[in-house]
Amino acid sequence: MSKVAAEQIVERLKAIVVSGKVLTDADSLQAYGKDWTKKYEPDPVAVVLPKTTEEVQAIVLAANEMGFALVPSGGRTGLSAGAVAASGEVVVAFDAMNRISDFNPADRTLVCQAGVITEQLQNFAEEQGLFYPVDFASAGSSQIGGNLSTNAGGIKVIRWGMSRDWVAGLKVVTGKGDILELNKGLAKNNTGYDLRHLFIGAEGTLGFITEATMKLTRQPKNLTVLVLGLSHFNHVMDVLQAFSRRIDLTAFEFFSDKALRHVLANGDVTAPFEGEAPFYALLEFESLTEETLEEAMGVFEECMENGWVVDGVISQSETQAKNLWRLREDISETISKFTPYKNDISVVPSKVPAFLTEIDEIVASRYPDFEIIWFGHIGDGNLHLNILKPEGLAKEEFFAKCEEVNTQVFETVQRHQGSVSAEHGVGLLKKDYLQYTRAPEEIAYLKAIKVAFDPNNVMNPGKVLDI
């Protein structure tokens, strides 16, 4: 983009967001032009922070008229480069659109703008005696608009589902610049295509979510956490099935001993018990009665007798439950300094043991000198594969080596009829591998939908699909 063109765009944006901000300083361009991925260098021309849906609409109309591209920016916690502006785009940051309104206790719904922080929504629900169940490690910084644009999942999916399951309505600005109000909070609305679900998971490629009507539920009571040491990964499904038959779990997570070592090395939490195990499972459930707790202990003893579990600990207080959760939730943060190469893959839960064994063998044989960290949401079949960069190896060389094995990994995903992106989205990182999960006919329909909503390709171009 030429300097003159850039100046014209900035002046147009300043005329649009009279109550907001337009940022062009180097620090802001760097901060807003990226997410948590480290492969691409940000290079936006400007950052604009609108405050209303109408301002977002005016920005989109200007982009169509003047021919510049837009990249949405929420909490910038994405892991697939879906919010990276690396090619002279304008970043539309939703930080200033952070109001919660229209709480309806009878319907258990509220309206929130796209920039509302996940934790902000959770806290608001709690203040009303209710619960917003979608939760993950980045809840303190991720934004609702970004969560919905990637259909974020997290640690409670086994009980409460993905982000899309809690959306009663959306207000969006399409790539053409139209404002659509989708579903309007209705529980029943059988009037044809539900366009709301096209925008959820679309990563801003069809248009921008500006408001969402979110559903809430009752608060869970006396959440109790079990951390179990597993004798072998193959027993993870045995343990899951044993507990699921008799208890309604709210979470079932797993992590490897290597993952745990990094968390413990940070010094903020202690080991769950004295002994060690190659893998660990974290279970959570509502302990509503003494009978439920006795049932859980009975299943634990059964798992011990069968040799599936070598040791375990159960929370005795809310504080202990939070500390046990940190053994799982602190993994991403403690390994981030090693510039991990991440894969977020999934299969149906019953295929997890065989699937993980195959993937682990591929990665270990190709990268015997790289440390491999496994963790994930086993209850819904989602595995996070993290390859840590050795000290002294250049970032570019490390990523190139990791990408060499992607074809083998994703061919295995395809053979097991899984997904190359379970919850992190496609963005730039997974775009070239979409065919391992989506059939050619599906991709053709996806492209047709993109063109229908964004004919000039101004909305997050180059992400998910190439048009």
TrEMBL record:
It comes from the Bacteria. It catalyses: (R)-2-hydroxyglutarate + A = 2-oxoglutarate + AH2. It is an enzyme of class 1 (oxidoreductase). Keywords: FAD, Flavoprotein, Metal-binding, Oxidoreductase, Zinc. PROSITE patterns: FAD_PCMH. GO terms for molecular function: (R)-2-hydroxyglutarate dehydrogenase activity; FAD binding; metal ion binding. Its EC number is 1.1.99.39. InterPro entries: FAD-bd_oxidored_4_C, FAD-bd_PCMH, FAD-bd_PCMH-like_sf, FAD-bd_PCMH_sub1, FAD-bd_PCMH_sub2, FAD-linked_Oxase-like_C, FAD-oxidored/transferase_4, Oxid_FAD_bind_N. Residues 40-219 form the FAD-binding PCMH-type domain. Gene3D superfamilies: 3.30.465.10, 3.30.70.2190, 3.30.70.2740, Uridine Diphospho-n-acetylenolpyruvylglucosamine Reductase, domain 2, Vanillyl-alcohol Oxidase, Chain A, domain 4. The keyword Glycosyltransferase does not apply. The keyword Zinc applies. GO terms for biological process: respiratory electron transport chain. SUPFAM superfamilies: FAD-binding/transporter-associated domain-like, FAD-linked oxidases, C-terminal domain. Belongs to the FAD-binding oxidoreductase/transferase type 4 family. PANTHER family: D-2-HYDROXYGLUTARATE DEHYDROGENASE, MITOCHONDRIAL. Homodimer. This is D-2-hydroxyglutarate dehydrogenase.
